[in-house]
Amino acid sequence: RVPRDRPFLLAGDLNTLSVLDRAAHESASLAQVIRDGPHAAALSKKFLSGARGSIDYAPMQALLDAPLHDVGTDSGATVPTRINADRMHFAELRLDYVLVNERLRAACGGQGQHLRAVVLRDERCNGLSDHFPVSLNFAVPV
Description:
The structure is a single chain. The chain is 27% helix and 18% strand. The protein is built from 6 helices and 7 strands. Helix 2 runs antiparallel to helix 3. It is globular.
């Protein structure tokens, strides 16, 4: 359960896709790339659902319905990096998220104007992990 009476934040590698990124997924024909790729069985099990093999947004949707707010919707892909050796990171995807409850969002300026997640993409970060780190920038107005 997401606490509603105090600020709450959930951040990390959630290994799921967000409906908020649907336009990018459709533009990249992501479902087809998954179905036709060299690791179709594993990737389909992880990212697709239904007979048509459409992208399964249910895990992230459950969090958004909690309700949590995604504060990194326009931050871009978090995988792959240069050192990626994982077949699950087959395309540019956003798998790392920062989600906040309404209480934290309101504390950062009503609609969260002072709350933003940013993917740190530079040469140093490109060689540290199989995911780019996500930084949360926030300010609580006084």
